[in-house]
Each structure stands twice: as structure tokens, then as C-alpha cells.
């Protein structure tokens, strides 16, 4: 495996995670005093840029910690691995700050696409979104495969892609209503996933995020080229469909 493989793994983990271990620094009243490490669980999604967002309650200890010191680390990992240490994992470090009010509708929509069950509590008064301003990342992709990445290595530039970001909700609705067979083909033929009821949950200039209807499995499918608007999106999806059909034919020939 070369450095490009490791970068692909890191980008995949960034985009496919639904939960993370959240590391914060404690307050003075904690058992070990101020500044001690504190680990907790948080639900996780990403913005079109790939910037991680979490939904937290003001009642939680980690939120109190963040209000005093927003420095944080998120650990995301491969799941469904018999030996967890054989799976890849990615630590994302930065500052986890409150999402500005003007971004909340976008964050809320993308978060609920990945966490439909959160619709029952996302609007409670004590809940709010925080976005990680990524400073760097640390990947362990297997024995002896350890690499660090800068934020720019992992995040997706959105310059020139405003039309795509605006079109995302309608594009996802259309794909999920009329092209579920194609989504399943992308997941199985291009991402190597098992068959299932696959839905599109997000898209950005670099790729398409898919999740099964039961929210138990996620995959990432990269576009052949950067996509910035509805026209280039249609072309990219057509190329993916052709590639998925070719993969299916190759699989049939092998069997």
C-alpha cells in the first residue's frame, strides 16, 4: 500500500462514520481535576466539505468541557471487524465549536440523513450542533501503517461548487425515489458492500455517501471527476452506473 491508499482510507473513514469517540478536557470539579482527558460517545456526520459535526446536549459532561475549552479529538473507525485492531481508525483533532445559526439548517438536514432516529430529539432546547475545525488527523491503517494528515489533505474544497451544494436536497430526493437500483449497484459493484436497501444520504464534489435503510451500514463512492453542479453530477452518476454494470458482469464471469 502506498501513501495514496492511506489517504483514500482516511477520507473514507472521515465520510462514512456515524459515531465517534469524543475526547475533551475536564473542568476543575472532575475527579482528576482540570485538564484531564475525558472520553465519551457522540453521533457524527459531515458537511459537504467533510468537516465533522456532532450533536450534543448541554446536559452532557463533554459539552460542559467544550464550553470551557473547545479543543477536542474525534476517533472514527472501521466497524464490523472481528479484531478491532485489524481495522483502520482515524483520529481527528481540532476545535469543536458551536455551529453558526446560518449553517444550522444545512447541518441539521445532513445530520438527520445519517441519523433518522435523531428527528425525535434534535430540536430539543438542550441539544445543539458543533463543528470540528480540523487541525490535523492521525491514521492507523494496519500494522506499521501510521500516517499523519493535514486538514487540507482530507477536506473537500467547495470553491465553485455552490450550485451543487444548493442542488443536493433535490438530487438526493430524486435518486432515492427513482434510482434505488442504481444506488444498490454503486454500493455493491463499486464499494464492495453486501446487497441491501441502499439510500443516498449526501453528496459533494468528491463523491456520494450511501447508507442502508436500517442505518446499519455506510459506504462512500468517489466520483470519477470533481462535480460542481447538476450537469456534471448527472455525467458522474452515468459513469458510475457504467462502471457498476461492468463490475457486475466481471463478477458473473468469475462465478
UniProtKB/TrEMBL annotation:
Protein source organism: Segnochrobactrum spirostomi
InterPro entries xref list: CREG_beta-barrel (IPR055343), DUF2470 (IPR019595), Haem_oxidase_HugZ-like_sf (IPR037119), Split_barrel_FMN-bd (IPR012349)
Domain CREG-like beta-barrel: 4-145
Leader sequence residues: none
Residue intervals of the DUF2470 domain: 170-239
Domain of life: Bacteria
GO cellular component: cytoplasm
UniProt protein name: DUF2470 domain-containing protein
